[in-house]
Amino acid sequence: MVRISQAIAAQAAYPFAALAAKRAALEARGMTVIDLSIGDASLPSPTAAVETLRERATRPEHHHYSSYNGVLPLRAAIGGWMKRRFGVTLDIDHEITALMGSKEGLFRFPQAALDPGDIVLYPDPGYPVYAHAIAHAGGQPLPMKLSEKNNFLPDLDALPEETRRRVRMIIVNFPSNPTGATADDPFYTKLYSYARRHDWIVLSDNAYCEIYDDAPPRSTLEFDPRHERTIEFFSFSKSYSMTGWRLGWACGNAKLVQALLKVKGLQDSAPFEPVQFAGIAALNLSDTDMAATRRFYADNRATVKKALAAAGITYCDARAGFYLWARVPAGLTAAEFTDRLLAERQVLVTPGTAFGPNGEGWFRIAVTRPPDQMAAAAERIGQPWGQATCAPDPSSDPSGDV
C-alpha cells in the first residue's frame, strides 16, 4: 500500500490552494469573481526587465547551470541596492545568495539553522509558510500572538524569561503580511537587545519593503551592523510585479547565508540566468518608476478604506505593503464571512484563520487588482451585512499565549 511521510500527512494544505478551488468552482458556473485573496500584482513587470530577459534568453551561454549563489553581476547589483537603500554594506561573495523567490529561502532556511526541538518564535497572524517550515525542519513553532492593542507588533516583554532563554530563532515580517503593520526603531532596538542577550537568530522577511506611502520601511540589518545574527529575505515579486519570475535573495550573516546555500545546493540550482539579469534591470529602476508603483497601491488602499469605513467595518490603517486587515461583521466567523462574500457577492478575500488561529475575526484584502476592479469589490464588500458593528478582537484576551 502506498504511504506518505507522517510529517507531510500531518501538515495542513497550503490555504491559498483551497481558495483558488472555490473561485474555480464559481467561474465554472459562469460567474465572474474579483479575486483579492492573494498578493499577485496586476501591474505589468518592468519593461526593462522584460527586454533584458528577451535579449539574454537568446544567448547560449545562459542555457546552462548557473552558479548556486547567483551570477556575480546580480549579487553586485543587490549589494549596491542594499547600500543605496539602507546604508548596509555586504560582502557580495559570502553574504548574498540568489533565490528562486523568497518563499523558497524562507522554507529552506530552518533546515539549515535548526536542530530537532529548537524553539522558533513566529507571528500569529503571519505568513503560513513560517510555521510549516519550522515544523518541517524539526523545530518547535511558538506563535507570538499579535493584537491590535499592540499595533500588531510582537510583545517581546511579555515573553517569560525562561522562554526567551530557550528560543533559537525569531521571525519578523514588516511591512507585515497580513496586517500591513510596520515596525519602528524602538521595536528593532528592543528586538536586538533580546537577541544579543539570548543569542537568537533573527530572520527578517522584508518582501514588502518597497511598497509604502510615507516613511520607507527599515532593514533589520541596519540594527545589526556587524551582521552577527541576522538573515534577511527580499523578493522581486512584490516590489517589481515579478511574481511569476521566481526571483529573490537572502543576505546577512555569512555563516547563515552559506548554510542556506548548502541546503539549496542539495535541492536545486540557481534561477535561470536571463531571469537574474532581468532582476538587475529591475533593481536599477528609477525613483519615478517606483513612485508610480507606490501610488497604485496607495490609491487602491484608499478606495477600499473608504468603503470599509462607510460600512462600519473596522480595519487596520496600513500605509505599507499589499494588504488591508479588517474585522469581520459581528456574528460571523472569518470563514463564514469570506464564504458568504464569495457566494453572494463574487469577491474572494482570505479568512484571517489562514494566517493562524489568532486571525479569527479578521479577513485580508489584497489591494493588487486594477482600480476599477478594486472599486467594484470595495462597493460589494461595503454593502450592509445586517449589522454595522464588528466582532470583538479575540487577540485582546490577555490570558492567551504570547
Description:
This protein is of the alpha/beta class. It has two domains: 10-39 and 288-385, Aspartate Aminotransferase, domain 1; 47-283, Type I PLP-dependent aspartate aminotransferase-like (Major domain) (Aspartate Aminotransferase, domain 2, 3-Layer(aba) Sandwich). The chain is 40% helix and 13% strand. It contains 14 helices and twelve strands. It has helices at residues 6-10, 15-28, 47-56, 72-86, 102-113, 129-136, 161-166, 185-198, 236-239, 254-267, 273-283, 287-311, 334-345, 371-382, and strands at residues 34-35, 96-99, 119-124, 140-145, 167-172, 201-205, 230-235, 248-252, 323-327, 347-348, 350-351, 362-366. The strands form three sheets. A seven-stranded mixed β-sheet has the order 2-8-7-6-5-3-4, sandwiched between helices. Helix 8 (185-198) links the parallel strand 5 (167-172) and strand 6. Helix 4 packs parallel to helix 11, helix 5 (102-113) runs parallel beside helix 6 (129-136) and helix 5 (102-113) crosses helix 10 (254-267). It is globular, with a radius of gyration of 21 Å. It starts with 5 loop residues before the first helix and ends in a 20-residue tail after the last helix. Residues 387-402 have low confidence and may be disordered.
Question: Topology as H/E string?
Answer: HHEHHEHEHEHEHEEHEHHHEHEEEH
**Helical/strand content category:** alpha/beta
Total DSSP helices: 14
Radius of gyration: 21 Å
Shape: globular
Instruction: State the end-to-end CA separation.
Output: 43 Å
Report the major sheet: 7 strands, mixed
